[in-house]
Task: structure prediction
Amino acid sequence: MREKHFLKKAAVLFLIFIFFSSSILPVLGVKYSSKNNKDNYPILIGQEFVLPPPQFIDIPLEESIMRRMSMRNFTEDPVTDEELSTILWSAYGKRDDGRYTVAKINGSHSVVIYVLLEDVYKYNPENHSLVFYKEGDYRDIVGWQYHAPVQLGLCWNTDIASANYASAECGAVGQNIYFAANSIGLGTVITAELEPAIEPVGLPDNEKGMGVMPLGHPVIDYNFVYRPIYISLLPRIKFSDMAFTTALEERIEISSWENDSISRDDLSHLIWASYGYSYYIDKSKSNVVKRHHTLPSAHGYYPFRIYTVTKYGISRYFYGLFNIDFIGLPIVSFILRTAFGDKRSEIAEATESFVGDAPICIIPVLSIEKTIEWDDLSNESVRWIWYYEAGAAAHNVLLQATSRGLTGNIVTIKDKDAVCAILKLEREKFDPMFVIPVG
Ligand SMILES: Cc1cc2nc3c(=O)[nH]c(=O)nc-3n(C[C@H](O)[C@H](O)[C@H](O)COP(=O)(O)O)c2cc1C
Result:
C-alpha cells in the first residue's frame, strides 16, 4: 500500500518535471543564444532574462560618430549576450540616475524596442532585461530587407507620443545603436517602410512600428582612413577624452545657461555633430570610397539645412561643398552669416522662453524640395521619416555638447511660421523641426 502511494507520488512529480522542462523552459529560455555567457547571464526571472552588464565602449565620442555607417550584409555568427546587452543599453538603457540614454522629446519617452531572436522579446530598460513576447522566428519576415542574427524593431507607444515626435526619439535611439554597433565591430542599418515591417509580429493596439534595424557581424571589414575635410573655415574636429559610453552616461538637459557665447571651436564641433561629414573615409568596399555623414538619411537624400542663432546673428552651415577631389568627395565646409543681430528672443517667442538665454541655438530645417528627388517623400503624412533624421541630429548635438563640457536641450517649435520668418525661409518650402539650445 505504502509502495503504491510512493509510486503515485513519484509519477505526479515526474509529470510536473516533464511539464516544466518540456513546455515552459524552452519557450522562455533555451532558444535564446547564449554563446559567451558571462557569469551565467542571462539570468531567467519569471518571463524575463536579465542581460549581462553592458560593455564600456572606450573610444572617444567623436570617433564613434566618425565610424557611423550603414552595413547591410551580415555573417551567420551569432551576436553574443554581452554584445546584445551593450547595444540595447546604449540604445535605450536606463542609467543609474534614472534617466535614459536619450533625451525626452516633447517631454516624454515613448520608444519600445522589440528584439527578434529565435523568438520575440521586448527590451525592458527598467532592469535591463528581455521580456518574452511571442514564440516564433520572425527575423526574416520582419527583417526581409537584410538577413541578420538579430532584428531590432523600433516602435512607439501611441498613448504617449505622436508619430513625428516618437520618430524623432527613434532617431536618437537609432544613433546610439549605430554608434555602439560600429564601435564594437558589429553592423546595422535603419530601415523604414510606409507599412511598418514589424506588423506581422502583432503589436498591442497602442503600439506602432517605426523602423527595423538588423544587427550582426558585417561580411565586409570596416576599413577607415583618417582624412579630414580638406578646406574648412571652421576649427578642426578633435577627438575628446570622453568615451562614447561616458557621454551616454553624462548627457543631461537643462533650461538655463550662465554664459552668453560659446567658442568657435565649440560651435564647430556642435554643428559638425549635427549634420557634418566624417573625417574617416570608408574604404570597406573595393569599388566605392565614401565619406559618411554623422547620421543616416532616408534614400540618402540629406535634405536638411542647419542654422545657428547666436547673439551675433544667424548663420547657415555648409557641411560639404564641391565634390571635386580625385574621388568625388566633398572638400569644403564653412558657416555663412545670413542675418545680423540677436534674434534669440524671437526664437524664444516661437518656442520656449528659456531658449532666449542660450548662447547658441541649432535649428535643423527640412528643405521639402529635397525630399522628392526620385521618390516623393514630401507629403505631411510621411513627415515622420524626416523627424527621425531631425531627432538623430539633435541627439548628436547633445552628445557632442556633453563631451565639450556644455549642456543642451531639444525644444519643439510652437510657431513654425515665425521661425521660418526669422530665418527668412518660405514656409511652404521649409519645415523647421526642433530648436536645440546649447551653452
Ligand atoms: C528614416 C530612414 C529610413 C531608411 N530606410 C532604409 C531602408 O529601408 N533600406 C535601406 O537599405 N536603407 C535605409 N536607410 C539608410 C539610408 O539609405 C542610408 O543612411 C544612406 O544611404 C546613407 O548611408 P550611410 O548611412 O551608410 O552613411 C534609411 C535611413 C533613414 C534615416
The chain has three domains: 1-30, 43-216, 224-438.
